[in-house]
Amino acid sequence: MGLESYRRRVSESKRKSIMEAAGAEFQGNGFTHAAMAEIARKADVSTATLYKHFGSKEELFSSIVEASYASLGIPQAAASEAKTAKEALTSAANDYLNQQFGAGINALMRAIISETSGVPEVGKDFLKRGVNGRNDEVVTFLDLLVKRKLLKPHDTKVSATQFAGMIKESFVWPTMFDPKFKLPANKDAVIEAAIDTFLARYGA
Amino acid sequence: MGLESYRRRVSESKRKSIMEAAGAEFQGNGFTHAAMAEIARKADVSTATLYKHFGSKEELFSSIVEASYASLGIPQAAASEAKTAKEALTSAANDYLNQQFGAGINALMRAIISETSGVPEVGKDFLKRGVNGRNDEVVTFLDLLVKRKLLKPHDTKVSATQFAGMIKESFVWPTMFDPKFKLPANKDAVIEAAIDTFLARYGA
Amino acid sequence: MGLESYRRRVSESKRKSIMEAAGAEFQGNGFTHAAMAEIARKADVSTATLYKHFGSKEELFSSIVEASYASLGIPQAAASEAKTAKEALTSAANDYLNQQFGAGINALMRAIISETSGVPEVGKDFLKRGVNGRNDEVVTFLDLLVKRKLLKPHDTKVSATQFAGMIKESFVWPTMFDPKFKLPANKDAVIEAAIDTFLARYGA
Amino acid sequence: MGLESYRRRVSESKRKSIMEAAGAEFQGNGFTHAAMAEIARKADVSTATLYKHFGSKEELFSSIVEASYASLGIPQAAASEAKTAKEALTSAANDYLNQQFGAGINALMRAIISETSGVPEVGKDFLKRGVNGRNDEVVTFLDLLVKRKLLKPHDTKVSATQFAGMIKESFVWPTMFDPKFKLPANKDAVIEAAIDTFLARYGA
DNA sequence: CATGAATGAGTATTCATTCAT
DNA sequence: AATGAATGAATACTCATTCAT
Known about the structure:
Four copies of one chain form a homotetramer. Chain A has helices at 2-33, 36-43, 47-53, 57-70, 77-81, 85-102, 105-114, 120-147, 156-171, 173-177, 187-202. Chain A has two domains: 3-60, Arc Repressor Mutant, subunit A (Orthogonal Bundle); 72-202, Tetracycline Repressor, domain 2 (Orthogonal Bundle). With 204 residues, the first copy, chain A, is an all-alpha fold. In chain A, 41% of the residues are buried. The first copy, chain A, has eleven helices and no strands. Chains in contact: A-B, C-D. At the C-D interface, helix 1, helix 7, helix 8, helix 9 and helix 10 of C face helix 1, helix 7, helix 8, helix 9 and helix 10 of D. Chain A binds a DNA duplex (21 and 21 nucleotides) through helix 1 and helix 3.
């Protein structure tokens, strides 16, 4: 028992340190230029141990992407608690951006895009679960606002895409081309402007 | 003289065939997986000749990206000729998408994103000249519509970004993760919906 | 006492299952491509236990080869019981081939040959005890036939080699280059022809 | 012209030195344990050049084996010139052994046997062209002796195998298990004894 | 005494770039 | 000016063996 739990603990701690190292490496260098040996070095394990935990570079990368899904998602609380649609949407936009910039999702997205040729499933999967998945949560979010009559009844699938597009154009798209891009000083104004446009059409 | 001009012509024809081959290769395989030897083969020159014209893979890639700028741009005619803002904006959106999907710009963008780690200048340059440059043309386009009173006076820098964001979210973003993504059947409806939202706020 | 004998029994049963697994693995994949981890898995023990019993891969292999000697040998009964030399020699040839093909000796020989560079002693040992050892038994076999006047008096060391050579050329040599080689349909005719040649010289 | 022939010369000289180095390496260490880097080093070329000439380790090995076929073969002259069958067969046996021991064929055969699992085609090919091919030449050789009435008319396919088997059993088989095995002092006596047995059955 | 996770040395192969002709 | 053979550095992955529990 003691032995088994000891091993599990050690193994899990190694697995965790590998995933951290791999996350950093993939985010920093993309899939192709990330080196397994370097990941092993950073994680302070041997390459063989690396391969015991993750059978291949692709598998390791997939695991990293998979794990990132857990950190994605639009908290729905604001939709039910906020007094106005503007307040709710502001909150959603900020949650979204915090994830992108805080959890390294921008860098991960660049890495995924880099490998659409080599590992196409990962890209398609991310499109479905990462991109569209989050859009679905925005839909749910908007549906709730409609229900609360803070928004007009309308096709929220369409409007969710429009809202996400306006936000991403200003803040996410630039990071794809410039990894050093930071959220600009006028971030709040830009968000507000997007929300205003959105509400001009869909506001109650 | 005759000899010199003959050589220049030959040289330029080789340069052209190299750029065509390189464009295809980079769009097809991304920067990293494009092979110089294959580009040389496709262009029917030796690798040494390739390197005479372009000192390195990065330089060749930069040249390809540079050349792509010429094919970008929002034709302004519609802004002055269209009867309604909706008509003008529909035309602009379609012009934009034709470039992205017709001239291989989506694939090129993926290639650029792949190399933001290795060759950051190319990415930053594309962001400035490719992405923002085109947005500037949208600004000009919108300014003209404002001047013609087809749109309300407003901050067109902001609105141009919003318009571009709504269009790109539906059609360009997916191609980043799935190179096989094609324009969907409901393309026109999506464009119209985006324009409707835009006009709810900025329509005259 | 009881404990000790229990342990010995367990240990010996493990040792036996290891040897079975290793025999199969070595015969199937040769020395180099046989994997210690796979042997452990097949034998249902840990790699550490494997190494407790056999200090190294070479040692394990040597043990397998050693064990194979027990299954080699030319039954002498036919030499005293057969009515004719032909009958006796036919019996001996078939006994020999049954061992080669039935007990996996062909595969084992391939494995040994594979490792003559790495573990030369095993090869030399097999040559002495496996190959020449069996030839000695053929010598004894022939001596008996001479004694019974079914064969002429002659140098049986020489004739044993000749007899073995004729049989092996047709049936064993091919398996060295083609593991899937099976005993051909005309096996008996080939054996008979070899015996005829043998008897032309050494028949009484 | 000068350029082209210069390149061909350089290229062929490199190819030759690679094949020499590879032959030595494969004969010394077998297929698996031969290292491409070491072959390159011995041949005084880079590994990349190695791969320009031979697309893979398997291909290189096949080329070595292929080249060895050229050095195999039973000279037919003795069959028509010798005064007696014994003289002719003695000559053939010695030619055969000189090839095996002089041209490193024994070592090459060990290498091929080592790889029957990994590269089965090479083994089967060698069986067909190397082993059986030479036996066919022995058949031709014997047919000529029959025609000259130095041997009785008989099935020379069968007798060729028997003759080869008797010779190989004493001299070739041992080298499979012991790379250091040398032709023994009594070589000539063993050959003569084999021929005597052969002639007892097939002599005119 | 048994375990199995961890090790690290070893190897085939690729590709941007250069150089002798 | 053009060639294409040659380079060498770089990298994913495997496996016999050991060691902490």
